[in-house]
């Protein structure tokens, strides 16, 4: 069985967020325990499994995502990686599009003229909530504000500036004790040093998900479905560029379209391997 590792939201290898992509021949998924075992073996933030749909009018492939410890409801970077693999195998439609049936409904992806890929995801409108009392102890800095993201199950914390976000060094166990399985930290981008106040990106973020076996996620597409409406409202523009300032870093371009958010990025295949044991 063929397995590809793809760096998503990346323009060169060993940046962005790596995801494993496994295209299954059968029209059903193997047992969940086997899917979870392989995801744990690969130990990437997500492994994406797909099988073709021959009897569906609204989707082309069934898609599931597993971290090393659990199945998740939504994953942006592994969806981008899956679309990248399908494109390389000539399995997108004649318009360069594909539709995935997932636990979060039908999600679309398309290949753009410049070779980048755009995901069509539901917007996760952030709702203001009180800042949890323990956040200063966890992060060593005081957030300015906090937001709940509803079904996305992510807590968003805004900090004073980009440097603060870059310097955060929370203990994973302390993060896991916060009232959300995933914590997104964000701030407005710092000026790029030109003296004119211009920015190469509009906002920065980092994402911590130790409850899912991911101390820090390198680049998180799904988090940008909440960051896009937050920063679009703040900055007064529908189209923005976010930079996730993890060690690997990655750029996500966002376009807010009401109840849908478009996430655009590039991907690079870094490994093409054969799985020697069946699922």
From TrEMBL:
Gene3D superfamilies named among the record's database cross-references: Diaminopimelate Epimerase, Chain A, domain 1 (3.10.310.10)
UniProt name for this protein: Phenazine biosynthesis protein PhzF family
GO MF term list: isomerase activity
Cross-referenced InterPro entries: Phenazine_PhzF-like
Keywords: Isomerase
Top-level taxonomic group: Bacteria
Gene Ontology annotations for the cellular component aspect, listed alphabetically: cytoplasm
Keyword Disulfide bond: no
Organism: Streptomyces qinglanensis
Keyword Isomerase: yes
Family annotation (PANTHER family): PHENAZINE BIOSYNTHESIS PROTEIN, PHENAZINE BIOSYNTHESIS-LIKE DOMAIN-CONTAINING PROTEIN
Family in the record: Belongs to the PhzF family.
Catalytic center residues: 46
